[in-house]
From TrEMBL:
<dbReference type="InterPro" id="IPR011990">
    <property type="entry name" value="TPR-like_helical_dom_sf"/>
</dbReference>
<keyword id="KW-0732">Signal</keyword>
<keyword id="KW-0802">TPR repeat</keyword>
<protein>
    <submittedName>
        <fullName>Tetratricopeptide repeat protein</fullName>
    </submittedName>
</protein>
<dbReference type="InterPro" id="IPR050498">
    <property type="entry name" value="Ycf3"/>
</dbReference>
<feature type="signal peptide">
    <location>
        <begin position="1"/>
        <end position="19"/>
    </location>
</feature>
<dbReference type="InterPro" id="IPR019734">
    <property type="entry name" value="TPR_rpt"/>
</dbReference>
<keyword id="KW-0677">Repeat</keyword>
Amino acid sequence: MLRALLVLSICSLSFVSFANTQDTLSNTIETPLYKPLIERYILDEIKSLRQDNQRLKGELAKQIAEARLDSSDRAIQYTTSTVNNIFYIITAAASLLVLLGWRSLNDIKKSIKIDTAKKIQTLTGDYEKRLQQIENKMVERSKIIINNQQEISNTNSIHSLWMRAGLEKSEEDKISIYDEILEINPNDIEAMTYKADALLEIGEVRWALNLSNIAIEHDDEYSLAYWQRACAYAQLDRQAEAIKDIQKAISLSDTLNEEILNEKHFDKLRNNEQFQAFVSKPVNEIVI
């Protein structure tokens, strides 16, 4: 009986120790591992896209070369057959003319040479024009396909960069990602605006103001560009310009009216009477 109790006690202690070990391992395993996996997934996708583009370019070049060779072979075969038929016809006609005595053999030869040269030249010119037209069409289509593939690749790359930017915590890292987006598409006003917001967060107010101005030059109906410029003006204590841009931004997107009180960059405007009066107005009463 005592031996059985001793065995049960030892088993209980072993089970408790094993459970504690499993809890420790579970807590360790639950540490966030998703960020490196997402980055690895994005890199693999970009690598796969690049490999597909290289393969498509190779296949396209091969198809163009085969089309050119096929067209040239057909043109040569047709020209050869035509010349042979012409010579047969000419030979028969010459024989007939000699028998009938219409012309001398020398006159017939000269006439045959002239007519044959003209017809060959005409046929050759026609086929050269056709081959040139086919080649031009193939080149144009290949350019269109390559441009479309490049646009798709750029779109996928930009989408992947936006996903990375959403995962980053550091404003400096976000700015680097926005720069990569602008390298692919220098006219991306959304990337300019988000970069301006990140610059405001690290105190680069004038840089953010300059980027906001560039974004507005590209699209003067983009509400977030006016909003970021208003934030920059507020930080520089240029209150009149800031309030004017706030009004413009809300007139373009009335949902921004809900963000006024939560925008920390407007703290210097809190005591401004015009700002206070403007905040208290409904959206439909805003006048620019």
